[in-house]
User: Which sequence fits this backbone?
């Protein structure tokens, strides 16, 4: 056989194999993904771009397909919180916490991280609205459920956003506990320079 023909045949087979496996992976991603996953991923991207209203729309589409999709519930709650829709945000966090508390399997670490994140985010919401005792209780629950999931951003987040010492759930919980132990007239509950660094949790 002509070496050039053989070489061309091998290259074509390699390309065909690559295309076939890539196509299979894409089809599998869309055909076998649980209902609402695609819409949730779209919402997550928009959430990261701070396009909150568009993100909420995609999370709502996900929830139309899968009413208790935990990623979509968390994403929509964060979207509500970031657009100052406090009542809707808290109701969404409440529902997510109740649903996970009743349905979480013991061997589901991702679900446990989502539950911890829901408590942490609801704590941030309550913190922002001046309900400091409730916020502290939520932070403590988040740390009890999965401290690792809410311990703060990793190295990638620090590189991208340039914040090497962000506020974390544990730091804020300690600060709130210290302030609440003081006489009311001595408390300093808000520290805008630090509080603005507090981030949402989306496991």
Assistant:
């Amino acid at each position: 056989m002509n070496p050039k023909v053989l070489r061309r045949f091998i290259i074509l087979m390699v390309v065909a194999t690559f295309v076939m496996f890539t196509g299979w992976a894409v089809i599998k991603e869309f055909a076998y993904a649980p209902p609402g996953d695609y819409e949730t991923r779209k919402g997550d991207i928009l959430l990261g771009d701070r396009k909150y209203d568009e993100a909420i729309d995609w999370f709502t589409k996900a929830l139309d397909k899968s009413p208790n999709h935990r990623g979509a519930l968390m994403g929509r709650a964060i979207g509500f919180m970031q657009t100052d829709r406090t009542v809707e945000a808290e109701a969404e966090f409440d529902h997510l916490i109740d649903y996970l508390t009743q349905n979480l399997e013991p061997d589901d670490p991702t679900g446990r991280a989502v539950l911890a994140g829901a408590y942490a985010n609801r704590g941030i919401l309550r913190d922002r609205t001046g309900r400091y005792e409730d916020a502290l209780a939520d932070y403590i629950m988040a740390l009890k459920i999965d401290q690792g999931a809410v311990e703060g951003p990793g190295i990638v987040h620090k590189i991208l956003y340039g914040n090497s010492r962000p506020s974390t759930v544990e730091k804020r919980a300690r600060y709130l506990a210290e302030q609440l132990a003081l006489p009311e007239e001595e408390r300093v509950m808000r520290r805008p320079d630090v509080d603005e660094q507090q981030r949402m949790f989306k496991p």
